[in-house]
Amino acid sequence: MCYESAVQVEREQIQIPSGHSFRVLRWSRSLREVENVLGPEQVERVKGEGTHWHFHVEMELTLFTSGTGTRFVGDHIGSFAAGDLVLLGERLPHYWHTRGSSSGISVQWHFPLGHALWSFPETASLSDLFRQASHGLRIRGPAAQQVAAWMQELTQAEGMDQLALLLRILACIQRTSTQEPQPLSARSFALATETHYQQAIAKAVRHLAAHFREEVRLEDVLKLTHLSRPTFARQFKKHSGRTFSEFLNRLRIQAACRDLQETDRSVLEIAMHSGFTQLSFFNRLFRRVMKCSPREYRGMKRG
What positions does the domain HTH araC/xylS-type occupy (predicted)? Predict the structure, then answer.
């Protein structure tokens, strides 16, 4: 039976705990091992979804307190480290490819029009923030440090105290977003609440994230996803915002950027180690993406 007509994969189904208007998640080792924090001394295990390409109706604020890796948000691909704080809008596809262990906190909520939150006139300004979050927002600087501290408090609070902390967090991010917004994805996404192809694209993204340093053949990815070439091309662009080759090359450029910052390898060695086979192509692509040469990038990051 053809995969394309047989498989229907729903978005992640998030269950807000009874007695709560949002949920607080934390992990101390892996995004696969997540706790739903119900109170200061009460937690329950839930399935971690952050290790694969996915989306959900709920908005999400995610803080990494430790760990490094690659962040995928919409059509954005970038590195992250401890202290990384990102606000995700509704139905925005995302994925964190970690390098080893990690820890962090996530807060998830869904406040659609008609929700009791909007009955308070003071919350009207949040609608602009929620619209901006459709691209994903990275929060930096003093605001990020303050929000990170409040998110830690969320895991120890309950009831009205916990709700008050969430409102304080949103107000802080809203003030920051009006001053210096840091959108991640070049375009917003409005994926359907159900998709036939989400699982297939998730497999492709995981495969690329794990093997981009090697020779990656489209034919192998098509076998992995059980999709035809035209369907894969159409759905991959729809879900990731990039073509297959653009996505792969951006992964390789991001890896090269890390090596330029963290190692003393030559530019040639870094290009080859990142999956490129021609130095001239690597240099042209790097300049087009990063707006400078690899050597200039290394000088700026180390200067």
Answer: 202-300
Residue 198 near residue 239, CB atoms below 8 Å: yes
Residues 232, 273: contact at Cβ < 8 Å? no
DSSP state of 63: E
The per-residue pLDDT for 39 is: 87
* DSSP sequence for 104-145: EEEEEE---TTSGGGGSGGGTTHHHHHHHGGG-EE--HHHHH
pTM, 2 dp: 0.83
CATH topology of domain 194-302: Arc Repressor Mutant, subunit A (1.10.10)
- Give the Cβ contact number of residue 123 at 10 Å: 17
* CB 34 within 8 Å of CB 23: no
Amino acid code (one letter) for 277: T
Supply 231's token pair: 């369907």
Q: Is 59 helix (H, G, I), strand (E, B) or coil?
A: strand
Select from 1.10.1040, 2.30.110, 2.60.120, 2.60.40 the CATH code of 17-179.
Answer: 2.60.120
Q: How far apart are CA 55 and CA 197, in angstroms?
A: 12
Residue 220 CB partners (closer than 8 Å, separation 6+): none
159-179 vs 141-154: helix axis angle to the nearest 10?
170
